[in-house]
Every structure is written in structure tokens, then in C-alpha cells.
């Protein structure tokens, strides 16, 4: 005869996994305990640092709503003052054993615990039916064994051996991040050991063209490369530097104008230009000179005629004088 031990089928109701066996999972008010069916499994990938204790990771808060649950993860150390991150918006209507990724806090604490705020992880959710009967936020204190919510250390892996996060323009990226070489960019990797821990060093370099081996490590290298190709650039004019767009401003004053042409400037002074050099003015001037010459000729002819008449009169007077 076959005997069915029905209590064996409900064995999961009598253990705390993935919490430690001595963790009661009871919240600080004593009104709520983490249902054993809620979390089927959990996995956290933590920094590979000697001072990180895998037995100190715990569930610090559970927020239960009608359709979603948030499960917060923390580290039991007074120096770690913030939660490490959260499994957020876990659907209460999702299929059994649905998985959710860990969302790290991404905090820069500027101390040795900074890597802890950039972890990765995954949680497997079982049945949320019992949990949604207790809508609200529930927090957990690790000072009391019965109320602790420590995670089994075997579910904590020191796996962040290389990149924990990447910061680009002030934004932090975690999870799967792909680095790709762009135009004229080269990336080289080297392996080294620092304080007994192996690490990979990625060197990113650039060249002015794909066939060049020139390395541009700083501003001086860039300036030297540009000078080699295009000559020494003009940085100031009479000691004055350009604006933020690398432009100089020319303004015409006191009857001076500045006009742009292809690759240059034309500076004019309209007030100094001749005002009588047009064809009409020259024609009128030449006509006036001709008229003046004509009047001069007429006046000279008249003068010459009068002078002749005076001479004739004088001669006649002389003759009359001699006859008297």
C-alpha cells in the first residue's frame, strides 16, 4: 500500500528560504510576516571586496499594493546608511516564478561602500496571493532574530570582478553595457593585478585618421597635431582672445565700415572717398574750363585791339605836336 505524506507536499511552508532558517521575516510591528510562498529564489551579485560580508544582506522593506509589490534590499552595517536598491513593480498577477531585475540605488557615497550601490541581482516570485492581503509598507529590523530577514549567503555571489558601473556625462549605467569603437577610436585591454585582485584596464585612444598611430592624450597633443597639419593657429589679436565661439568681432566706427568677403574683410572709410569723380561732374567741369578759355581769348582780343587804338592815337598826337 502506498502512503502519501501530505505534509511533505507543503514542506516549503515550514522553511524560510531564500531567507536564513533563523529569520522569522516578521516586520517591526509584528502584524506581518513575509509569506514563504512570495519569494521562490533570489540572487545578488555583489562587489568582490574583502570587507563585504555575504551574511549581512537582508530585505529591509516590502511595499505591497493591490497590483504591485516593491522589495527593498539593504546591508546590515551602520556605515551603509541607504538601501542598496529595490526589486520594483513586481506584478501580483504575473505568472508563478516570474523574474525581476534588481534596480540599484546608484548613489555616490564617496567612501568604500560606493560599489555597494551599483549591484545587480534577480528575484523569482512565487505566489503573491497571501501577500496582497496585507497592503501597505512593512519594514524589518535585524537586531531581533525573530524579526530578521537575512538572505541566505549562498544566494550572494561576489561576482563584480571588473566593471560595476559606468559614468558618462554624469549618468550612471549598470547591467549589460556594450562599449563600441567609433570613428578613429581604438580600445586596448590589459590585465593587471592590484592589491591581489585581478582587473582589466581598457585604454581608449584616438587618431586624426584611421591610418595614423598618433595618440591624443591631452589638449597639448591635440594642439600639436592640428599645428602639424594646418600650421600654428591664431589664438589672439593684439593680446585679445576670441569669444566662446572662437570668433573676433570687428565694428566700424567714425565713418568706417566693415564688410565681409570670401575668406576676408573689407574696411572702408566712405567719408574719405572723392565726391567729384563722377562722369557728369567731370564733363561739367571741362565745359566750364572751355568757356573760361573762350572768355579769356575774347578778353585778350579786346585788350589787344584797345592797345592798338591807343598806340595809333598817341602817334597822331606826336605828329600834330611837331607841326605846331
Summarize the structure.
The protein has about 325 residues and is α+β, with helices and mostly antiparallel strands.
Feature tags:
324 residues; rod-shaped; five-stranded antiparallel sheet; four-stranded mixed sheet; 3 domains; alpha+beta
Could you report the average pLDDT, rounded to the nearest whole number? 82
Termini, distance in Å? Answer: 200 Å
Total DSSP helices: 3
What kind of sheet is the major sheet? 5 strands, antiparallel
- Oligomeric state as shown: single chain
* Helix-residue proportion: 10-25%
Strands in their spatial order, largest beta sheet? 6-4-3-2-8
Spans of at least 5 consecutive residues whose pLDDT stays below 50 are: none
Give the C-alpha Rg: 49 Å
- Could you state the order of secondary-structure elements as H and E? HEEEEEEEEEEEEEHEEH
Can you tell me the number of structural domains?
3
Q: SSE layout and pairings?
A:
Layout: H1 6-9, E1 39-47, E2 57-64, E3 68-75, E4 85-91, E5 98-101, E6 103-104, E7 120-125, E8 136-139, E9 156-160, E10 166-168, E11 171-173, E12 185-194, E13 197-206, H2 219-230, E14 257-261, E15 264-268, H3 279-323
Parallel strand pairs: 1-9
Antiparallel strand pairs: 1-7, 2-3, 2-8, 3-4, 4-6, 5-7, 10-11, 12-13, 14-15
Amino acid at each position: 500500500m502506498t502512503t502519501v505524506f501530505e505534509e511533505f507536499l507543503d514542506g516549503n511552508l515550514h522553511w524560510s528560504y531564500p531567507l536564513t532558517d533563523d529569520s522569522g521575516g516578521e516586520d517591526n510591528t509584528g502584524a506581518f510576516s513575509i509569506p514563504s510562498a512570495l519569494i521562490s529564489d533570489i540572487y545578488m551579485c555583489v562587489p568582490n571586496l574583502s570587507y563585504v560580508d555575504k551574511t549581512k544582506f537582508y530585505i529591509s522593506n516590502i511595499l505591497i499594493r493591490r497590483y504591485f509589490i516593491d522589495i527593498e534590499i539593504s546591508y546590515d552595517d551602520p556605515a551603509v546608511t541607504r538601501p542598496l536598491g529595490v526589486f520594483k513593480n513586481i506584478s501580483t498577477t504575473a505568472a508563478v516564478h516570474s523574474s525581476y531585475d534588481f534596480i540599484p540605488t546608484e548613489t555616490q557615497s564617496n567612501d568604500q561602500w560606493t560599489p555597494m550601490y551599483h549591484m545587480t541581482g534577480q528575484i523569482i516570485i512565487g505566489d503573491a496571493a497571501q501577500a496582497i492581503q496585507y497592503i501597505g509598507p512593512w519594514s524589518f529590523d535585524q537586531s531581533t532574530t525573530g524579526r530578521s530577514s537575512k538572505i541566505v549567503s549562498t544566494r550572494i555571489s561576489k561576482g563584480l570582478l571588473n566593471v560595476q558601473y559606468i559614468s558618462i556625462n554624469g549618468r550612471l549605467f549598470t547591467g549589460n553595457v556594450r562599449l563600441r569603437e567609433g570613428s578613429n577610436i581604438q580600445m586596448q585591454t590589459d590585465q593587471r593585478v592590484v592589491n591581489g585582485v585581478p582587473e582589466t584596464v581598457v585604454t581608449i585612444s584616438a587618431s586624426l585618421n584611421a591610418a595614423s598611430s598618433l595618440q591624443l592624450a591631452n589638449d597639448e597633443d591635440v594642439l600639436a597635431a592640428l599645428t602639424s597639419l594646418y600650421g600654428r593657429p591664431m589664438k589672439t589679436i593684439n593680446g585679445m582672445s576670441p569669444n566662446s565661439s572662437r570668433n573676433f568681432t570687428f565694428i566700424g566706427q567714425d565713418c568706417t565700415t566693415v564688410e565681409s568677403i570670401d575668406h576676408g574683410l573689407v574696411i572702408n572709410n566712405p567719408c574719405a572717398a572723392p565726391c567729384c569723380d563722377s562722369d557728369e561732374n567731370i564733363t561739367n567741369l571741362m565745359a566750364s574750363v572751355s568757356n573760361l578759355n573762350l572768355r579769356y581769348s575774347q578778353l585778350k582780343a579786346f585788350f589787344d585791339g584797345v592797345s592798338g587804338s591807343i598806340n595809333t592815337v598817341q602817334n597822331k598826337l606826336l605828329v600834330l605836336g611837331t607841326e605846331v
